[in-house]
Write a structure and sequence with these properties.
By secondary structure, the chain is α/β, with parallel strands linked by helices. The protein has a domain of 83 residues: Nucleotidyltransferase, domain 5. It is built from 3 helices and 5 strands; from the N terminus they run H-E-E-E-H-E-H-E. The relative contact order is 0.13.
Length: 148
């Protein structure tokens, strides 16, 4: 007589225990998320966004004028005119062009004048006259520099 063959995969039906576990985990996740949202509302935190400036930012165009002990004038490390020239036509022309370009760009032209302590006094006056002829009004003047 033959015995019926038993299979190792009996039909166990629908397993509800794993489904309850999954639903419980999702429930815990949403409950903890809801608690965080409530805390954020209590703190009244503002996230960064687009800020509007009350005033416009002004850009400055700074040029460095130097006078060495021999009276040679340099603008941004470029020599202009001869030492004997009192009118400084090249420097005046270049300063006028710088002033016109900064006015066109709506930026402020600032010239820093660095005069060596042993430079002739009349040379400083010559440079200041060239600045006045060019229309440069924002001038910072110093008598010494660490560069000399």
């Amino acid at each position: 007589m033959k015995l019926p063959v038993q299979t190792n995969n009996p039909d166990v039906g629908f397993q509800i225990a794993p489904m309850i576990d999954v639903v419980f985990v999702i429930l815990v996740f949403f409950m903890s998320l809801a608690a965080q949202i409530r805390i954020e509302q209590i703190l009244q935190t503002k996230l960064p966004g687009v800020s509007v400036a009350g005033t416009s930012t002004e850009f400055v165009d700074e040029q460095i004028l130097q006078i060495d002990e021999a009276g040679e004038v340099t603008l941004n490390d470029e020599a202009f005119d001869s030492v004997a020239s009192r009118d400084l036509p090249q420097l005046t022309n270049t300063l006028g062009q710088l002033k016109a370009s900064s006015d066109a760009a709506k930026s402020k032209l600032v010239v820093t004048l660095i005069s060596h302590p042993d430079s002739p006094y009349f040379r400083t006056i010559d440079v200041l006259n060239a600045l006045a002829v060019a229309g440069v009004t924002n001038v910072t003047f110093t008598a010494e520099s660490e560069e000399f």
